[in-house]
Amino acid sequence: MLSNRLMRGLGALLLLLALVVAGTAAAAAQEITFWVMPNAPDAIHVPWLQKKAEEFHAETGIRVHFEVIGWDVAWSRISTAIITGEGVDVFQVGTTWNPQLAATGGLSQLDINEFGGADAFMAANLASTTYKGDFYGVPWFAETRALYYNKDMFAAAGVEPPQTYEELVAVGQKLIATHGAGRAIAIAGTNAYDLIHNWAIILWAFGGELVDIDARRAVFNGPEGVAAMEYYVDLVRQGLASRATAEYNQDQADAAFINGNVAMAFMGPWNIADIEIENPSLNYGIVPPPAGPAGRAAFSGGSNLAILRQSPNQEAAKKWIQFLLRDENLVDYTKNLTKMLPATLSAFEDPYYEQGVWQTFKTTLGFARAYPPLATWGTIENAIVGEFRNVLAAYVDGTLERQGGVQAFLNRAAEQVDRALRDER
Fold it and tell me: Which of 102, 249, 298, 332 could form a disulfide with 131 if both were Cys (CB 3.0 to 4.6 A apart)?
């Protein structure tokens, strides 16, 4: 028989071993991996992330290993992680990606109340985190597009920024009379995402919609959609935009404005940083998008934060998201690094967003809309954009009317979208 003393010693040893094992397991769990896109130049982005990771570790004991991954590979990296369940705990996703990834079953369903509640966020950005009514992400930062204008070119033509789309055409005609054809406005004709972003705000302002979710059918080929697309083509037809628009991607359209060659462009807050670097002497202003027959409209984009469903570090991942969403961190990140806009209402109360161009973007984001949170959105977007590119190309080569006009192209796009919507889960 073992003595009582020996038994007590053995028990203490076993307890100590259990505590060590438990402590080791806990320590292992106090590490998470964060994937983030290059939202700012690495020279300022990486040091900021390092500093915040250190602050977070000091406060919580949780270490954050982060990696900046390019937008061009992000979708494939995230998709692989969803399949394997490895590689990442928390990651950034574009707003249109969130519902598509949620539909795979690879994202953690979240309680939005753990992050301040639904009322804490910009409505459009919050909507982008949902799929079938549940939350699978948390809004991080937002973006929208407003109308940039060249003050010197406007002054030379004796015009003011347009308040309606009808005024935009009238102002544009005076601009080209002063500065030459094609120099009133720059628009994208080829870049998939920006083409639909810029056209959608006209569609909504004209009273149209992209899809009827309940009926599972496209509706952008209705009268309002045709009028909106005719308006877009008319910008080229009437000489306000260059015929080269059919070949412009968004970067080229932005450059035309930033270089001082074009008087107007629909651009985002991040373009302010481009102007500061590429043409700091540019004398420009920013106003909300013009109003159409149905009022003003804008697209709301940005990025959300999501958690891998198979991550073993769910609570630590939530704490990191909560940390990034603190007002001081969110304001610092958007104001000093990304030139984006915070997705929380409390951060938006910072005085910085009440001044100058930031007030314009804040106002615009207030009436901005997100795309429908659909699993098939990627397929839908590609179908729409493919035919829209063809509209502009057909006008430039003189075949638009022979091919049935704008209506025929929109109908073909609608047929593709209807097929995609039938596959919606």
Answer: 102
Which DSSP letter does residue 118 get?
G
Cα–Cα dist 171/258, whole Å: 19
| Residues in the chain with pLDDT values less than 50 | 1-29
Which helix (H) or strand (E) segment holds residue 273: the answer is helix 271-278
Name beta bridge partners: 212: 217
The percentage of residues in the chain with a pLDDT greater than 70, rounded to a whole number, is 92
Contact of 184 with 263, CB cutoff 8 Å: yes
Q: Which of 304, 307, 329 is nearest to 318 (CA)?
A: 307
Taking CA 133 as the corner, what is the angle to CA 128 and CA 138, rounded to the nearest 5 degrees?
Answer: 40
Residue whose entry in the numeric block shows the structure tokens 């995230």: 78
Query: What does the alpha-carbon distance between residue 253 and residue 133 come to, in Å, rounded to a whole number?
Result: 37
pLDDT at 14: 39
Residue 28 has a pLDDT of 45
CA-closest candidate to residue 94, choices 42, 44, 39: 39
Instruction: Give the model's pLDDT for residue 234.
Output: 94
Would the CA dihedral through 363, 374, 140, 319 be positive or negative?
A: positive
Residue 18: per-residue pLDDT: 40
State the pLDDT at residue 251.
Answer: 86
Instruction: Yes or no: say if 238 and 170 are a contact pair by the CB < 8 Å rule.
Output: no
For residue 250, what are the CA distances in angstroms to 2, 192, 198, 259?
Answer: 81, 9, 10, 14
Query: So what's the pLDDT on residue 191?
Result: 64
Contact of 335 with 136, CB cutoff 8 Å? no
DSSP 164: B
Instruction: Go through the domains of the chain in sequence order and give each one's CATH number.
Output: 31-144+300-369 (3.40.190.10), 146-288+376-422 (3.40.190.10)
- For residue 68, the cross-strand partners are 36
Neighbouring C-beta atoms of residue 233, cutoff 10 Å: 21
Report the run of H or E that residue 147 belongs to, with start and end. strand 146-150
> Using one digit for the tens of pLDDT, what is the confidence trace for 58-83?
999 999 999 999 999 999 999 999 99
Query: Among candidates 237, 240, 258, 243, which has minimal Cα distance to 177?
Result: 240
302 strand-pairing partners: 142
Task: Give the amino acid at 276.
Answer: E
